[in-house]
Design goal:
By secondary structure, this protein is α/β, with parallel strands linked by helices. It has a single domain, classed as Divalent-metal-dependent TIM barrel enzymes (TIM Barrel, Alpha-Beta Barrel). The protein has ten helices and nine strands. Helix 5 links the parallel strand 3 and strand 4. Helix 4 packs parallel to helix 5 and helix 9 packs across helix 10. The radius of gyration is 18 Å and the shape is globular.
């Protein structure tokens, strides 16, 4: 979504120009989501960028909550995720990332919320049965009404739902101030996707380049043997100014260069 304001061809061209070799396509990208959601058109554009294959997909989240206390909201949200899983399969995506939902009230999740979560997971399993894309649930930013914010909570869900995998969001993990390594230690066997960006108590989804956290992330991934997609998830509203298309591409390029330098440094140190 970092290049959300541009057309599909410009988005993918910018990603390629930045030196990235895949893309996580957020289905709510306006140039797709608000223009008819034509899968054939999206396929045709992606076919112009064969080096991205296989891509990853992010299921819709805006205005949605699959465990909402309002049954109609929950139903629409679950249907949206189920439909996104089908879309991921049509696009031959490697992974689709989904969110767990959140308690509607600004209170800690209750038994009733977890019951609705179980219903949601049953629908996800039914939608993904027989399809090739791995469905990976993401650890959430620690807020009072959030689900799945700790390493143990993720592990419990992965144990209960063997069809699920894990999208590790590094910024969300850092935001909690706990032991980030524990996310990897407990769940590395099910990680299929990584969201990479800077996170702290006062910032989230900022660039990693130039920070010590880039080295920490690459060290964690290298030591665990992870070799799947790493998606740079940058929030443009958190930057000091609004960037042009060219500036956004340069920023992504810096993230790529910084990642590989940190990765190779970490590998060399471990030899």
């Amino acid at each position: 979504m970092f290049l959300h304001e541009f057309c599909l061809n410009s988005i993918f061209s910018g990603i390629l120009q930045a030196g990235l070799d895949t893309v996580e396509f957020w289905l709510e990208t306006p140039s797709f989501w608000t223009t008819g959601r034509n899968i054939s058109d999206l396929k045709n554009v992606l076919d112009e960028f064969p080096s991205f294959s296989p891509i990853t997909i992010h299921a819709p989240t805006l205005d949605l909550n699959p465990i909402s206390i309002n049954p109609e909201v929950a139903a629409v949200s679950v249907d949206a995720v189920s439909s996104a899983i089908q879309t991921a399969d049509e696009l031959r995506a490697e992974v689709i990332t989904i969110h767990p939902g959140r308690r509607t009230a600004k209170r800690p999740p209750s038994r009733a919320d977890m019951h609705r979560f179980a219903i949601y997971m049953e629908a996800v399993e039914a939608a993904s049965c027989g399809l090739s894309a791995a469905v990976a649930i993401e650890n959430m930013e620690p807020k009072i009404n959030s689900l799945l914010t700790t390493p143990g909570a993720i592990r419990d869900v992965l144990d209960e739902y063997p069809h699920l995998f894990f999208t590790f969001d590094y910024a969300h993990a850092c935001r909690g101030g706990g032991d980030v390594l524990e996310f990897i230690r407990l769940n590395s066997d099910r990680i299929r996707n990584v969201h990479a960006s800077y996170g702290s108590s006062d910032r989230v989804h900022a660039p990693l380049a130039g920070s010590e956290k880039m080295g920490e992330l690459t060290s964690l991934l290298a030591s665990s043997g992870y070799d799947g997609p790493v998606i740079f998830e940058i929030e443009d509203l958190g930057l000091s100014k609004m960037l042009t298309y060219e500036e956004k591409c340069r920023l992504l390029s810096l993230e790529v260069d910084s990642f590989w330098k940190a990765w190779h440094k970490g590998v060399d140190l471990s030899l």
